[in-house]
Specification:
single chain; mainly alpha; Arc Repressor Mutant, subunit A; Tetracycline Repressor, domain 2; 9 helices
Length: 195
Amino acid sequence: MPPVNAALRCANFEERRDRAMALFAEKGFGQVSMRELAAHVGLTAGSLYHHFPSKQDLLYDLIEEFYEELQATLDQGRRALARGTPVLPCLIAAHWQLHAERPLQFRLAERDFCCLSAAQQTRLGALRERYQTGLLRLVAPQSRLTGEALAATGHVLATLLNQLPGMLRERALSEAEGLALMESLVQGGIERTLG
């Protein structure tokens, strides 16, 4: 019987995190008080502090998870490379899928990153840079760019992969149309910049 209780606690915790994420995404992190957050997730304020020492810690946890998921998209690209299949379509499809599964985390990571402490921003910045560097190694391993130009290219490429799915879904494109357009836009940029 204990595993069921543990599983239930875990499910409740995930559900509460999802509710918190939805509230942050809807209102903006800075506009949500701990009292409002606690009520929204079905806890007392004191009980919420038991799970998360602060609102910032909760936001950090949500954004950190997002960067871990982005890192996992690179694993899919590596597997495609090992199979000898084109990497870019695989990465685009993985980002499209991740955006479909976690649109609120994309919004939080972009809009509310500035609400975190300097130390939290530094830790997440390192995760973001690791992701961007890995992305470039997969997509353009022979690039002639170096230094800041290469880092800026990685940032722009990651931004395209992370924002295009939301923009294209707003246009009511089918998945096939969206993926094809993303591939065309990203491939064109890569060929002109890194080719």
